[in-house]
C-alpha cells in the first residue's frame, strides 16, 4: 500500500519524548496506551470506527530508513542515541481493538497498544491521524445510509478533499455501507467498485447536447447515465431518450430543486416509455437532503462534499492516552491526567456490548483491568490485530474492507431503531464502566 | 515528492469522458479549463490560494504505468483505445494561475489550463483535490495569523486529519504565516521548521512530575518547554522552575481557562525570577480563541484541530470548468452551463488587482478574453507555471513554499485593514468582470 516509510507521519514531540525517556530509562517501561473518544460529535447517536486496516498496513512500513534518519540527524530533531534506537525500530508489542466497521460510543477503547512506552509513543500521531479521519467519514456515511434506506449511495467527493484523504474516505464510505465510489485509486488499492459517466464539460465540449449524448451512448452503450441539466432539463431528458431509446440506463440531475424535478422527470420518462430509466441525484447532498428526497422517485444518491468532510464533523476527536505502565518494582500502575475538563480513566480496558434477549444492544460495558462479569448475551468487542509484532493479515487489504462492511451491517442491526434517527440526541446506548466510577 | 504515479487520484468519470470524447473525436479539441470559487465560505473576507506547488509536483508523476493501465483494463473502466491513449499520457499544454499564497476572491481565475480537452479533463480531480484542501487550510491559517498579531503560531494538528493531509496542511499553514509545524514529514519534504517537546504521557510515564521534568531537562536542556498541567498547574510551574532554573525556555498550558491561567502563571513565573520563561498555549485554539487571548501574557499559540479542518470550512469549494474550446471550423467558442443557481462565465480569463495611489487593493478585475485595460497601479495576478508541458521549477519544492509565504505577506499588506477583522462580512474588495455582465 505505502511504498515509502510511514514513520515521519509523526509529531516532532513523539521523538523528543523518546529521546528524553531513553535518557531517563523510562522508555523501556512496559506500557498500555488506549485510543478512545471522550464524546461523540454533538447530537450524534453513535460513531463508526474506521482506519484500523490502514493503520495495520502502515505499520508494516513504519520504519526509519537512511533517508529518514539523515533528516532527523541533520535537523537535530533527536540525538545520536535516539537515532541508534530508531535504526532498528519495529513494533514488537500487541495491538487489540474494536473491529473496523464496529460502532463505538464515548470511552469505547477502540484501540489498545501493549508495548514499551517508546514503541507506542512513536506510533501515536499516525494512529490518531488514521482513526480520526476515517472514523469521521464512516460515521457521517452511516447516517447517510440510514437516510437513504434501500437506495444505493455512491461516494463522489474526491475533488473536495486532499487526494490521499479521498482514497481513505472512499474506503471508509464503503465500510459504512456505500455501494461504490468514483475514486479510481481507491478501486485500485482496495478492490472497490468504481463508477462514473460524464460531467457538464463533456456536454459543453460538443457542438450540442445531442452530439454529446450521441458520443457518450456510441462509446458506452445505452445503459449509461446521461447528465441532463447542462441547459434545459426537460429538453435534456427528451434528447436523452431520443438518443438512447427505451433502454437508457439513467439520467443524472445535479442542480435545482431535486424533489420537484425528480417528480416531473419521472413522469416525463414514464410518458416517453422509459419506465426502467433510473434517476440519480448528486447536488450537494447530505443526510438531511437524502432524507428529504425519501418520497421523491429517486433511484440513487451521489454524495460528495458532505461525506468527505464528515458532514460538519471532519474529525472524530479520538485521543491516545497512556493508561497504565510498569514501575521499577515491576508493578503496573494505572495513570490518568488530572485536568478538570478532560476526564480520562486509567487502567487497561476490556469491552463488551451487552445485548437483551432479542439481541438488541443495551449497554457498552467497559471493564477496567478485567473483563466485565459475563452475561449470556454479551458480545466481546476487542480483537487482537498484532501479537508480539506479528500482524494478523485478516485485518488488512481488500478482504478487510469487505469484512468491515459486514461488521458494520451486523452492528447496526443490533442497535435500537432510534440509532437511525437523524435528529440530535444522546448516544443510543450508554457507556458504563465496571469497577471504576 | 510522490514516488508513485498520481494518475489514479482521479474520478472514474474523467476517464469515461475521455473514452467517449476519443470516440467522437472531440477529445483533441483545444480547450480552456478554469479553476475558481463561486463564493468564499460564508462571512469570510478573502481566501488564500494554496496547493499549486503540490499540483505541479504531482504533475511530474501524472502518468499511467503498467500497473495503473492493467487496473483500468481489468476492471473495464475504459476501452482499449483509451488505454492506448493513456499509455503515452503526459500533459503538454500550458498552466497559468495565481501565485501560491496569493489572496483570491469569488471568480478569481486561480488556475487556467490550455490544452486539449482530453489532457485537462484527466487532470481535473487531482487539481481540485489539492486546491480545495490546501486553500481551505491556508485561508483559515491566515485569519489565525491576523488574530495572533506579532505572536508566533505553531501548526500541530497532524493527529486530527489524514496523515497525508497533515503534511499538506502544515505546508499550507506555513504559507499563510505560521512559524513552524510539529509534522516531521512536512519538515522533511519541504524544509519546514519543526518543533515539539512533550505530552502528558511523558509525565505520567515517570514516577512523578519532577522526575519527568528532570528527564526532559537532562536530555534537552533548560531551554525546553515543560508541560505543566498534568496535575496541578501551580505546583507544575514551581517544580518546572526548581528543576530548570531561571533559564527555563517555556511552560505549556493545554487545558482550563487559558486567559486567567496565563495571567497568574506569568505573575508566578516573574515572582520566581523567570521573567524570560515564555508561555505557550495549545488547547483547542481557533482564530476567535487566539483573539480572545490577545490581552493575556501569552508568547505563542499551538493550533491543531481548527487549523487542519479549515476552522469550520474544510474545503474551499473550488470548481473546474470548461470555459472555451475550439470547434471544427477552428474558432474558439466560449461555453458555460446554463443552470440557474450556479453562475459560470465562459471565456478565457485575465486578472489584475487594481490598487489605489497608496497601493491598497480596491478591486479584483477580471477580463474575459483579454486583459483589462491597464492602469498604472494594476498588479497582474496570473503567472505561467507550465509552457507546452515544461514546468517552471521556481514554483515547486522548498523554495516555492518560502516564496509563497512572502507572496502572502505582501498580498495581505496590500489589502484594506478590514481584511483582518474576524467578524463575518463581505469580501474585502469586489470582483468586477470587464466586457461581460
From TrEMBL, chains A, B:
InterPro entries: Aldolase_TIM (IPR013785), NAPRTase_N (IPR040727), Nic_PRibTrfase-Fam (IPR007229), Nic_PRibTrfase_pncB (IPR006405), Nicotinate_pribotase-like_C (IPR036068). Its EC number is 6.3.4.21. One of its GO terms (biological process) is NAD+ biosynthetic process via the salvage pathway. The keyword Amino-acid biosynthesis does not apply. Transiently phosphorylated on a His residue during the reaction cycle. Phosphorylation strongly increases the affinity for substrates and increases the rate of nicotinate D-ribonucleotide production. Dephosphorylation regenerates the low-affinity form of the enzyme, leading to product release. One of its GO terms (molecular function) is glycosyltransferase activity. Keywords: Glycosyltransferase, Ligase, Phosphoprotein, Pyridine nucleotide biosynthesis, Transferase. It catalyses: 5-phospho-alpha-D-ribose 1-diphosphate + nicotinate + ATP + H2O = nicotinate beta-D-ribonucleotide + ADP + phosphate + diphosphate. Coiled coil: none annotated. The keyword Transport does not apply. Pathway: Cofactor biosynthesis; NAD(+) biosynthesis; nicotinate D-ribonucleotide from nicotinate: step 1/1. Residues 8-132 form the Nicotinate phosphoribosyltransferase N-terminal domain. GO terms for cellular component: cytosol. Belongs to the NAPRTase family. NCBIfam families: NAPRTase_put, PRK09243.1-5, PRK12484.1. Catalyzes the first step in the biosynthesis of NAD from nicotinic acid, the ATP-dependent synthesis of beta-nicotinate D-ribonucleotide from nicotinate and 5-phospho-D-ribose 1-phosphate. This is Nicotinate phosphoribosyltransferase. It comes from Paeniglutamicibacter gangotriensis Lz1y.
Amino acid at each position: 500500500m505505502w511504498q515509502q516509510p510511514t514513520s515521519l507521519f509523526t509529531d516532532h514531540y513523539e521523538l523528543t519524548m523518546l529521546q528524553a525517556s531513553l535518557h531517563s530509562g523510562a522508555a523501556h517501561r512496559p506500557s498500555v496506551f488506549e485510543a478512545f473518544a471522550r464524546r461523540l460529535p454533538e447530537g450524534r447517536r453513535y460513531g463508526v470506527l474506521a482506519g484500523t486496516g490502514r493503520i495495520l498496513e502502515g505499520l508494516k512500513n513504519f520504519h526509519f530508513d537512511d533517508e529518514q534518519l539523515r533528516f532527523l540527524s541533520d535537523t537535530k530533531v533527536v540525538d545520536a542515541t535516539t537515532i541508534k534506537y530508531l535504526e532498528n525500530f519495529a513494533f514488537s508489542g500487541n495491538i487489540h481493538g474494536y473491529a473496523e466497521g464496529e460502532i463505538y460510543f464515548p470511552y469505547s477503547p477502540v484501540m489498545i497498544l501493549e508495548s514499551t512506552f517508546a514503541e507506542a509513543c512513536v506510533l501515536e500521531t499516525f494512529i490518531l491521524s488514521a482513526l480520526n479521519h476515517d472514523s469521521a467519514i464512516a460515521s457521517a456515511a452511516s447516517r447517510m445510509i440510514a437516510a437513504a434506506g434501500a437506495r444505493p449511495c455512491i461516494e463522489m467527493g474526491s475533488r473536495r478533499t486532499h487526494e490521499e484523504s479521498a482514497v481513505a474516505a472512499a474506503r471508509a464510505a464503503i465500510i459504512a455501507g456505500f455501494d461504490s465510489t468514483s475514486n479510481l485509486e481507491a478501486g485500485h488499492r482496495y478492490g472497490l467498485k468504481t463508477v462514473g459517466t460524464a460531467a457538464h464539460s463533456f456536454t459543453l465540449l460538443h457542438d450540442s447536447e445531442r452530439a454529446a449524448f450521441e458520443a457518450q451512448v456510441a462509446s458506452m452503450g445505452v445503459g449509461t447515465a446521461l447528465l441532463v441539466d447542462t441547459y434545459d432539463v426537460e429538453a435534456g431528458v427528451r434528447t436523452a431518450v431520443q438518443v438512447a431509446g427505451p433502454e437508457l440506463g439513467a439520467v443524472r440531475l445535479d442542480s435545482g430543486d431535486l424533489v420537484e424535478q425528480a417528480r416531473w422527470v419521472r413522469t416525463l420518462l414514464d410518458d416517453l416509455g422509459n419506465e426502467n430509466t433510473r434517476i440519480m441525484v448528486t447536488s450537494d447532498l447530505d443526510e438531511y437532503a437524502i432524507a428529504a428526497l425519501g418520497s421523491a422517485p429517486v433511484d440513487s444518491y451521489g454524495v460528495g462534499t458532505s461525506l468527505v468532510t464528515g458532514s460538519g464533523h471532519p474529525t472524530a476527536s479520538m485521543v491516545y492516552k497512556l493508561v497504565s505502565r510498569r514501575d521499577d518494582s515491576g508493578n503496573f500502575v494505572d495513570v490518568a491526567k488530572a485536568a478538570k475538563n478532560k476526564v480520562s480513566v486509567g487502567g487497561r480496558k476490556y469491552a463488551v456490548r451487552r445485548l437483551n434477549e432479542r439481541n438488541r444492544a443495551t449497554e457498552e460495558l467497559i471493564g477496567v483491568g478485567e473483563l466485565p462479569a459475563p452475561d449470556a448475551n454479551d458480545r466481546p468487542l476487542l480483537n487482537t490485530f498484532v501479537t508480539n509484532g506479528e500482524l494478523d493479515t485478516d485485518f488488512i487489504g481488500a478482504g478487510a474492507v469487505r469484512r468491515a462492511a459486514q461488521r458494520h451491517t451486523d452492528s447496526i442491526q443490533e442497535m435500537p431503531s432510534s440509532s437511525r434517527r437523524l435528529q440530535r440526541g444522546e448516544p443510543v446506548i450508554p457507556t458504563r464502566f465496571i469497577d471504576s466510577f
